[in-house]
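Could you help me review a protein record that somebody else here produced? This is what I was given.
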Amino acid sequence: MKKLLILLAIVAFAIAMPFIGNKHITTDNPSKLDGDGNFILYDFQKTIRDGGGPDWDYNLKPVQVSDRVYCFFGEMDMPTAANAGGMSNSCFIKGNTEWIPWDSGPSYKFAEQAYAEMKKIADMPVKTVFVSHEHDDHWLGNNYYKENFNAHIIGPNSVNVNYYGPRLNVKDEGHEGATGEVNDFPGMQTRMIKALYQNAIRKTQLVTVDQSPTEKITMLEISGVKIEYVTVGYAHSEMDTFAYLPDDKVVLTGDLVMNGRVTSNRDGQLLVINDKGEAEGQIPAVEAINARDWDNIVPGHGFIVNASGADEAVLYFNLTKDRVLQAIEDGVSQGDITKVVTLEEFRDKDLYYLLSPGNVYRAYEELEMYEAPEEEEDEDEEA
């Protein structure tokens, strides 16, 4: 009998373990709350997100890259509830009378805290914000600058077409090849708004880009700063850009360049010839960056900002292309390509196991139909 009672007590304790120490929450839907009483968002929300608990502290510390460029460097990880989406690099260019943000970060709260740090350096407003590309870890802070400064947002039109909310009618205009057609569809729900806790994503609202580039190179001078805003087309995403500051010899690349970690090519392409007969993709984009005379580079993810900052991207993209093309020529099937092309040189980089096999697999799909331009074929024959 005593043994039976002991056994029953052990079973009861095991059943109770998941509940020991848990805080009781009175709510109709407790699965939607985190430990601080903040709603966890899985569904589209039209209202401003308030929730409970203190604001998420991104613990932002600006790093001076050049005389006029200061940056916040994100974690080498995917967006998670633990990092509140703070995993991309966001910069500020110091003009004569205003700060010019490059990629506003993953949330309103991030932008608010980043600007507070910059204000300590120089108490200036924000009148213009640049967006590198459409992935939401780079621009969900835009509505902070729109709400507080009515800032003018310059970035790819794909932000307007693919992401917006609440539901809007978006006219296809302001870029090369615009049709003027009004698109009435719900758009894509962003990863951040789906995944992050209320104390990080609260007050974040999607706002449209005000101006999209209509030329490959747009020359601007803002508050005494010369900026070459370069559109490279479909590379890491549907429409990518980078900024070159010729007087400062600094390039802000967005996700066209990463270092210390493997890139994600889930929405991108390596190398294609577009319908105008021009090369597009990651390889031509990085070549365009390296064609500029720069001393410092700020990648979309990563910490290397000196003259070697683009080297990993150049090596990764070119090795992927060369090895996948060789495997196709050798008759390797798509199902086996990730066993053959492993890119061992990058095994010690962050996110290698998570992202590199997918990049190789998609490169096979793309390069299987690739035909080298005549100039490239002639160079190969001469070699």
